[in-house]
Write a structure and sequence with these properties.
The complex is a heterodimer. Chain A is of the alpha+beta class. Chain A folds into four domains: 87 residues, Uridine Diphospho-n-acetylenolpyruvylglucosamine Reductase, domain 2 (2-Layer Sandwich); 116 residues, Uridine Diphospho-n-acetylenolpyruvylglucosamine Reductase, domain 3, CATH 3.30.465.10; 189 residues, Vanillyl-alcohol Oxidase, Chain A, domain 3; 61 residues, no CATH class. Helix content of chain A is 34%, strand content 19%. Chain A has a seven-stranded antiparallel sheet, with helices on both faces. In chain A, α13 runs antiparallel to α14. The longest helix of chain A is centred in the middle third of the chain and has 17 residues. Chain B is of the alpha+beta class. Chain B has two domains: 157 residues, Uridine Diphospho-n-acetylenolpyruvylglucosamine Reductase, domain 3 (2-Layer Sandwich); 111 residues, Alpha-Beta Plaits, CATH 3.30.70. Helix content of chain B is 32%, strand content 23%. Classes of the chains: A alpha+beta, B alpha+beta. Chains A and B meet through β9, α7, α8, α10 and α15 of A and β1, β4, β5, α6 and β7 of B.
Chain lengths: 484, 304
């Protein structure tokens, strides 16, 4: 495997010289994604403009045995787009066309470099929107969303990226192009599309995507409930869901996050709140009115001392202000922070939040909690100062929080992906057998192992030979007694 | 069909694994549903009402699951014809009228435990409603018809039972136009079926005032009258008798119907259940990929 000048020429002939980047200072732009702690400089960055060009790139790389990493906007938080040293990055940013808007079918066909928000912009005048809304939606690309099966605050009711992709064009690692799905699913054969979405670029390169867009709801109500304890707020969350209400979004912020948000944006949240619950309800007017009333009653009965209801779009923006800007706001109160992404069953939220507080004390580092409470997706923000040597302790604390999530029957990641960041943690959630089966599936798509190697599955090179602390998979744990 | 004595009938995950391992060692082929049956795997392993999730063994029938969940005010939002097992729902990707709002098994499965042809037990996904760790084998096996592995257990997303519901049935000359008008509006039906020729049925679920308001709004768009559940029974029965599934871009609903004598169509999903078998051979590339996956997960070709 070597990236020779001859190969640069060959790629130049294919893509145009200006779309082949090999100069070290220009390559550095691509040496990490949103997880900036991991860096690696690729041998070349290639900027194709079509499916056919991607296909040729993949064929050439396969011929030369060169690994590749496909990349969108590079906003991912798990190092999924971290380059392989001496490999190539296939940057899909030039493939940014909306190819078709078919509102009679409620579908939009896009190239992978289209940003998430552009899809909604293309259809909102006609009363539609694209539901998955990761916080980075202004810049993150649909290609990246497909790779990561991205979520967002409004996925609670509408589902995740995988529930909104009905078809993709996939360039397989061997160079063949296959169409999976289309404007409709429901093929009577294995759901290949379902396994490709969320596969973090390890099963091929997606070059065209058909998305489902949904009708804008008749009304939206946003409410903010202030609690004097985070446990009560966590309890309110699971009770809202258990009461049969399905909010469009159900978000939570703790005291530390509230403080940071106040310093950064001054949204004027209720004084003395230890936790805030942000509840958004949408749909037909009569249902939303009923649910809003039910949510308010429930929150008050569990000790909410103030409940605010946004009456218009401006007030709604104000309620969301602190939540949407929570991550950057942390910069006001801490030099560095690490965003963890774990999931727990909703009913275990209160106890896991208490456990996180304990762990925070034990490690002597602050943890801000701001997260998608409705689906149990925690985003603990571990605050630290790399200048005073706290980095290692922060990593240990973040790992300990993840183990607490797994112990509660949860998951390593709800929406940020495994990437390189959590590959070594996979044996904590999956057995050696499970991982071996994953590896077999991966090899069926990519026998040469050239598509985003080193991501998703643990490798001895990355993780050493020591097996992780496997906790029986929650599904298998059930009814274990009967087996022995 | 093999006789009962030749059938493998595991009653636990461990037995399922042993059964397939020994079939594999003995070079015997297994056809799930025929030479290996799952009616010994019918337990509900967990139902966490507050989480709206459950984990069940795959031989559990939908009627049994429905009965167990109803007292908790919950359901699995899957209503295919007949009373298939959970495993069959996944393996054959079965759904009914509720797919309009809630999707197909792929949209409701959170995790699976598979037993591969050589007896290997493999877990994927999890039991929580949001999770992107590892490859989503739970979706992969949807539609796989037992060819990739035995679905032994599945974790599923549940929904609250609606407080009330009502159905509107409209007899119209242009059911496609009526269905598209409903889709274009802001009502949020749980089901929208075209019973071709001549009728559109719409199901609303929720609190009573919301259901009433939506019935009124839908009626203003397409006419018709409030009806009982019979129309959904009819829809499922006709779907159950149909031999073919036709796929079409939702915008082509009218053209698609014009070529059909009769059909039950689900417009937002772009699927019509038609009396006759319809072909639909995947491309050579997809076939090759499917074969590679089959070889990877079932290298001994134990599963038919």
């Amino acid at each position: 495997m070597a990236f020779s000048p001859a190969l640069t020429t060959e790629f130049g002939a294919l893509l145009g010289d200006e779309h082949v980047i090999v100069e070290p200072d220009r390559l550095r732009v691509y040496d990490c994604d949103g997880l900036t702690g991991w860096r690696s400089t690729p041998a070349a960055v290639l900027l194709p403009a079509s499916t056919a060009e991607v296909q040729e790139i993949v064929r050439l790389c396969t011929r030369e045995g060169i690994p590749w990493v496909a990349r969108g906007a590079g906003t991912g938080l798990s190092g999924g787009a971290l380059p392989v040293a001496d490999g190539v990055v296939i940057a899909l940013t030039r493939m940014n066309a909306i190819l078709e808007v078919d509102l009679a079918s409620q579908r939009v066909v896009v190239q992978p470099g289209v940003t998430n928000l552009e899809v909604t912009r293309a259809v909102e005048a006609d009363g539609f929107f694209y539901a998955p809304d990761p916080s980075s939606q202004q810049v993150c690309t649909i290609g990246g969303n497909v790779a990561e099966n991205s979520g967002g605050a409004h996925c609670l009711k509408n589902g995740f990226t995988v529930n909104h992709v009905t078809g993709v064009t996939l360039v397989l690692p061997g160079g063949e192009v296959v169409e999976l799905g289309g404007k409709v699913l429901d093929e009577e054969r294995p759901d290949l599309l379902g396994v490709v979405v969320g596969s973090e670029g390890t099963l091929g390169v997606v070059t065209e995507i058909t998305l489902r867009v949904v009708r804008t709801p008749a009304t939206v109500t946003t409410m903010l409930a202030a609690f004097r304890s985070i446990t009560a707020a966590g309890e309110a969350c699971s009770r809202v869901i258990a009461a049969g209400v399905t909010p469009a979004a159900l978000e939570m912020m703790d005291r530390l996050t509230i403080e940071a948000a106040e310093q950064a944006f001054n949204p004027g949240y209720p004084d003395g709140a230890q936790a805030l619950l942000l509840v958004e309800l949408d749909g037909v007017v009569e249902q939303v009115d009923h649910d809003a009333h039910a949510v308010e009653e429930l929150c008050r009965s569990l000790g909410a001392f103030e409940v605010r209801v946004a009456r218009d779009a401006d007030e709604r923006r104000l309620l969301w202000l602190g939540r949407k800007g929570a991550f950057p706001a942390m910069g006001r109160i801490s030099p560095d922070y690490y965003v963890q992404d774990g999931v727990v069953p909703r009913t275990r939220l209160p106890e896991v939040l208490e456990r996180i507080e304990e762990l925070s004390r034990e490690h002597g580092l602050r943890v801000g909690n701001v997260f998608h409470a409705g689906d149990g997706n925690l985003h603990p923000l571990v605050l630290y100062d790399s200048a005073t040597g706290e980095t290692e302790r922060a990593k240990e604390l973040a790992d300990a929080i993840l183990l607490a999530c797994l112990d509660a029957g949860g998951s390593l990641t709800g929406e940020h992906g495994i990437g390189v960041d959590k590959a070594c943690a996979m044996p904590g959630m999956f057995s050696e057998r499970d991982l071996e089966v994953f590896a077999r599936l991966r090899a069926a798509f990519d026998p040469e192992g050239l598509a985003n190697p080193g991501k998703v599955l643990p490798t001895p090179r990355l993780c050493g030979e020591v097996p992780g602390p496997y906790r029986t998979h929650p599904l298998e744990r059930m009814g274990l007694a009967e087996r022995f | 069909m093999p006789s009962a004595s030749e059938q493998l009938r595991p009653t636990s995950l461990a037995e399922a694994s042993e059964a397939l391992a020994s079939a594999s060692a003995g070079g015997r082929q297994v056809r799930i549903g025929e030479t290996l049956v799952t009616d010994g795997l019918t337990r509900i392993l967990q139902h966490e009402a507050g989480d709206l999730t459950c984990t069940v063994e795959a031989g559990l029938r939908l009627s049994e699951l429905r009965a167990a969940l109803a007292p908790h005010g919950q359901r699995l939002s899957l209503d295919p014809p007949g009373d298939p097992t959970v495993g069959a729902c996944l393996a054959a990707s079965l759904s009914g009228p509720l797919r309009h709002r809630f999707g197909t098994p792929r949209d409701l499965v959170l995790g699976v435990t598979l037993v591969l042809g050589d007896g290997t037990i493999a877990n994927a996904g999890g039991t929580v409603v949001k999770n992107v760790a590892g490859y989503d084998l739970g979706k992969l096996v949807c539609g796989s018809r037992g060819s990739l592995g035995l679905i032994a257990r599945a974790s599923l997303r549940l929904h609250p039972l609606p407080r009330s519901s009502a159905t509107l049935v409209a007899e119209v000359n242009d059911p496609a136009g009526a269905a598209l008008a409903i889709l274009r509006s802001q009502v949020q039906p749980s089901a929208l079926d075209v019973l071709h020729p001549g009728r559109v049925a719409v199901l609303f679920e929720g609190v009573a005032p919301a259901v009433e308001a939506q019935i009124a709004a839908a009626r203003a768009l397409v006419g018709g009258d409030v009806a009982g559940d019979e129309v959904w029974r009819e829809s499922r029965e006709r779907q159950g008798r149909a031999l073919g599934r036709l796929r079409f871009a939702p915008r082509d609903l009218r053209n698609t119907l014009s070529t059909l004598r009769e059909a039950v169509a689900r417009p937002s999903a772009g699927v019509a259940y038609v009396p006759d078998r319809v072909g639909g051979v995947p491309s050579a590339g997809v076939r090759q990929l499917q074969r590679a996956i089959k070889d990877a997960l079932d290298p001994g070709a134990v599963l038919a």
